[in-house]
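Help wanted!
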Amino acid sequence: MITIVDYNAGNLRSVKRACDAVGIESLFTQDADAVAKADKIIFPGVGHARTAMDTLQRTGLADAVRHAYQRGTPILGICLGAQLLLDSSEEGATQGFGFIPGRTRLFRVEDRSLKIPHMGWNTVVVEQAHPLLSTLRPGDELYFVHSYYLDPSDAHHVYATTEHGLRFCVALGKDNLFATQFHPEKSGPVGLGLLARFASWDGSPC
Amino acid sequence: MLSKRVIACLDVRDGKLAKSVKFVDTKDIGDPVQKAKQYYEDGLDELVFYDITASSDNRSIMIDVVERVASQIFIPFSVGGGVRSVEDASRLRLAGAEKINVNSAAVKDPELIRRCSDAIGAQSVVLSMDVLRVTPSAAIASGYEIVINGGRTNTGLDALQWALRGQELGAGELVVNSIDADGTREGYELKLTRMIADAVRIPVIASGGAGMPEHLYDVLTEGRADAALVASMVHYGHYRVPELKAYLASRGLKIRTVPTVARARAPID
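Answered by r_m:
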């Protein structure tokens, strides 16, 4: 059973539907206790970093996610749910969880032909093998929509990258934590494949 | 580098698929959910549903269509037509639409764009504009005017200025639909698309006039569009999505290749 953290993040139901489609049992909850005790957690997110973090703190969900991480629960962060795992975000000068060193930065691209938000399908390059990325093939594209990008300070935590004006991290991981900037729930069969892998992942990075 | 997107637009009236030609005389051509599913399996990049239901009594049918689509289709899709308030936008978003399209209602009340953007995020707000070619004047210097109510009402707004205003108000993407080209199958309005795509920083989806694969290539290159909207050319089976994408890729564009659905269930080794 996968527990999806419900903090009014826009893509909650999409994540649930994608889990349903690949036969993964999931539920969403706002209950901090349920999150702290969950077998497996998806931490989704679309929206503003500051608003999201405030909600997570106020509801006790932030502490629950922290607790779950420390006890080794496999966690999959998606989009904003990935960005908040770093130390901080430039969006609203927000403090993140700090599970992984680094920060979330605003795209500052000189080339005016490069559109912001980075919206659409882009090729993901696997930089380090990881159980959740094992079904990806060279050239696979996943769906992105974001104006801020992940910038972990240690390359050791970077599992995949893409390129949009610069090459940046789109999948980061540490221990039982894995997170993607792209949206597996909106990335067709390739994305659903990643979710299916998460359902059977034991939380070990290799 | 982002791939150029191929997007199919499905006009929905009273929960059924319809395709308008020059915005008059629509005829039903099937179940939108079934059609959407076929396109998804064919490797389409994105979908747009336009609710052209005349009676507001039947609007709730659209929510049902959106929910059914969202449970079977795992690519982004947007919904437009009749979005007049933040409540309308939030309802569609909650039903599973990735983005909502505003059009006429935003012309009448531009702040609607800002309110929607604040409520559901700029990335989820698409400003869709219907554009008519006119003689350039002091008020409409670009020679392109915004029209509303399905092309029947002129607004006096310059399309270029409206695009910039929409971006400033918080739209995350633009659909530029040429009324002149719509339904002709003679190609997109390249000059219009390029003018707007060059002026804004947000992605531009070209709409109206697609009849052949070459038209898509032209608007994605010369027209500088980020995505090309197709309708009748795929709805009536003249072309299939994989065929269009293979053509664009063969001309050197970066296009997402189509993996088989079976890969979603890849077993753990």
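OP: Thanks! One thing I noticed: Chain A touches chain B through 46 residues (CB under 8 Å).
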